[in-house]
Structure formats: structure tokens, C-alpha cells
Amino acid sequence: MAIKKTLFGALFILISIICAIYPLIILPVLLIGLCIFIMDVQLRRITRFLFVIVVIAAIFGPYLSIPGFGGLFLFRVALLLHFVLFLFEKKDWAWLSKLKVPFLAFSLWILFSIITLIWSQDMQLSLRAIYFQLESLYLIFIIVYYVRQVKNLEKLFFLDYATISLIHWSRVL
């Protein structure tokens, strides 16, 4: 374990030096630092934290984008990272049987959207729309997954209210 942290630390310092010349290298530096920081944290806690980040980033939207890359913002990055980590997390799927019909309907809608690619005149626009549908399906899924009790819903509403209040007061001042 100490060897891994030493290796990550040395790599972190090396990339930090290179970052002075190439500024976009800051992204791997932050990623390596994050890996060192969360190395001993349970995956369930990481995905729960990423869920909170996704909810906050969904409110801020493109305001949290990487400069120079307008289409790449925190919501999309956090959602993709959550999806990858969520695949490896041990889950209880018993609750999903109650929501089988809505998720099946949404999945059929996406399937029919994929079928319409056959006669689509603008393939790039159609693929973008399908991506947004998949994004919204996953967002609905993780909200339903993490918000199963009223207490969790109250926490989510409070988090949204605090974020919107922060946006409002930052514009007023």
C-alpha cells in the first residue's frame, strides 16, 4: 500500500511540473490526487457522494464547464464517472421490480429512437438526442435508486434549495 501511494505521489509531482508548460495536464493531476485521496474509501460512499455532485452539477449546468470545452461540463463528467463506478458497486435489485413498467417504457422509447436512425437525415443530431435520452434515463434511475425514503427526498430538496439560493445571492451581490 505504501508503495502505491509513493508511486502515485511521484507521478503527481512529475505531472505537476509538466503542468507549468501544458495547462491541460491539470486534469490528470487532479485525477491522480483524487485517486490517492479516495484509495481507502468504500465504493458505496464514493457513488453516494458522486450522486450529490451530479444533482448539484445538474442545477449549475454549463456554468461548471472546462474553459475552452463548452460541451464538457461537470454534470456530464460526474454522471459518466458515477455510471462506471456504479457498475462495480454491490447492489440490491429487489426494489426494481416495482418500477419495471416505467423503466421498460423509457427503454422502449430509446430503442425506437435508435431504430429511427435508419431514416434520419442528420445522423449527428439524432445521436446527440439519443445520448440525451440515455443521460436522462440514467439520471432518473439514480434518483430513484438513492431517494427511496421521504428523509432522503427532504435532503435532496434541501440541497437543491441551498444551491439555488447560492446562485440567487451570488447574482444579487
TrEMBL record:
Keywords: Membrane, Transmembrane, Transmembrane helix. This is Uncharacterized protein. It comes from the Bacteria. The chain crosses the membrane at residues 6-37, 49-66, 72-89, 101-119, 125-147.
